[in-house]
Amino acid sequence: MLLSQLPENNPMDTPTPQQGLSALTDDAERNRLLAEMAEQSTDMISRHTPDDWRFIYASPAVTHLLGYTLDEIIGMSAYELYHPDDVEDFKRRSPSVSYERGLYTHTYRFRCKDGHYTWLESTSRSIRDPNSGELKEILVVSRDASRRINAEQANRRLARILESSSDLVAFVGLDNRVTDLNEAARRTLGVDNPEQAGLALADLFTPESYQQLKAQAIPTASAAGSWRGEAEMQAPGRAPIPVMLELLAHRSLDDRIEYFSTVARDMSEAKAIEAEKQQYQASIGHATRLITMGEMASGLAHELNQPLTAIVNYVRGIERRIGDSDDPKLTVLHTPLQRISATALRAGEIIRRMMDFSRKSPPQRQAVDLQPVVNDLIEFCTSTATRQNVQVENMISADLAAVVADPIQLEQILLNLLLNGIEACQQIDESTPAQVWVDASEQGTDQVIIRVHDQGTGLPVTDTEQLFEQFFTTKRDGLGMGLAITRSLVEAHGGQLWAENQPQGGAVFCFTLDKAT
Ligand code: ADP
Questions:
Q1: Which pLDDT belongs to residue 6?
Q2: Which of 64, 161, 415, 460 has its CA 20 to 30 A from that of 213?
């Protein structure tokens, strides 16, 4: 009850010489000292009437804390200065008010003289008459709580930001145990309470990433405060999550590391976009190369046409000059000359076909007989096939129904399948030639199915759909575009193209086309 012995701010109440020596007892001296301490304290010490909490006394700190002079504050009711919301709190004994061993501690807003509210933390005590128990006054010690409250509010704001961040945040003790996770981390990792779950740092990362953290990130963060780099996190039921990770070491005031935190940004989406971009760029690159190749081929074809025509003309000129001569030295030249001219014409034919291939003419659908088309193509590939010890055969019957197709595109489809078949056989090292053959039959009432068989290596993958993906190739110099283009040509005709392994070895590529009516 020491503080109750503080004076009221009434000069009449302070001890006077008239009170005699008896007033200067030890108690009086103690009161004086206490009063002096109260006068000098930065805490505001005040006494209040019990009913309406009027100020009976306030120490000078009141001016510093609230801006009132002593004269102004004495007689004012504390209720006038409470923030309206806090009055209610106080009355309802809400969590901002605590009661312990006869002392109330209360944090609330109090209006300063200039009208703004400041946070105070007060401890108050009821002073009762020891004999009657009657409540005589309230004694209060108040201190400025603004800094604490502001710091708490700032902390709460930061905690809210951390909690709602989409980055995965974890706090990790020096024993590598995870003590806290923010909402995003809890959701991703499927953990409600990391401490309860006994989660350790090693559980959050893939083994390789954890090794990197141990070897590099933790030592760097311990020495320099932070480490930043790429890592892979792991979560149940998910593929490894690529993240950009910031690892921070948090130190106490005496500079000891207390704990670590990790802030991880999920990069899955960014990585997927990057991969897609690279794939797209690769496609553009390939497509550009194909266009360039197409243009080069058509330029070359154009350039070669003229000298070939000239060869044929020269040969014909020589033949005319030899004429009907009986000179055996000249007559033996007839056959080789005919062969030169036939070969040059054939070369011209090959070139014409190449130009047709690269010409961007709109497709022209018409009824096409398959047998002669396949015959032509086989002749076209004969030299390639022979070089590679492959025999190509046309097994299509002459009375097969015609199909509806653009002749040039149909040739492209068949040629690509034939050349692939020949190439697949070439890898088989056999003394007897391998066979590639084409057959066809009618399917249902309105379709024809065409098959290109080979005795080659068989398909390199079990998921045969992969073969038709752009850029899928198992060849060193392959482009992996042939089957993708072939399929789109077949589909543009309303047909289907697929591949199978043959039971006896080798592959068969089948496609359907509409029957001509
Ligand atoms: P490329 O010939 O440039 O590789 P394609 O799209 O024509 O491109 O073929 C893709 C892949 O399909 C080839 O690399 C090969 O692995 C496989 N393939 C195609 N035809 C056959 C076949 N007849 N037998 C076995 N594998 C084949």
A1: 55
A2: 161
